[in-house]
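User: What would this chain look like folded?
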Amino acid sequence: MVYRRTPAVQARLDAQRARIVQGATGVLSRSGFAGLSMAAVAAEAGIATGTVYKQFENKAELVAAVFETVVAREVDAVRAAVAQGDVVARVTAAVETFAGRAMKNPKLACVLLAEPVDAAVDAQRLEFRRAFAASFETAVAHGVAEGQLPAQDSSLTAAALVGAIGEVLVGPLVAAPHAETVIPELVAFAVRALGAHPKTL
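Assistant: Here's the prediction, encoded as structure tokens.
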């Protein structure tokens, strides 16, 4: 007979996995990808290193799980921000949410956006960017449909905005300046790049 985990056992393992991912997120937030090790994560989570390896085969697999968890949370926040309003309001909310949340945890944001990582983790990063671009695309497509923006490829525009904003954030995140000096400029850039009609500004 094939062994099947009981609901109680599965719940315990799921909770243990979540604890490890949370621990890894804490280490990444302080030390980045370069400072992450299975032992450091175990210490952060208050468990044995062997327990971490039972859940994750290697560092790349663990970081991929962190990306999946953190990105889902961040994308949900941006998606909610672009749910209503005209195109300028939606794009402003998207940029402020994306950049503002990044500035609150700059080291982790640098890991998500730019720090050199394993190839498998880099693939997760691309998914991260695509997910954010999809939220921007929704706002741009709405603006075009409502006549607030000139005709354009909303998918291409969204990808360009996410790439540009991510590139700008890498420097500010490392230098950790005051958010108020960075985010308004990013919003203004995004609105100009979209070609919003003056009446919508």
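The mean pLDDT is 85. If you want, I can go into more detail on any region.
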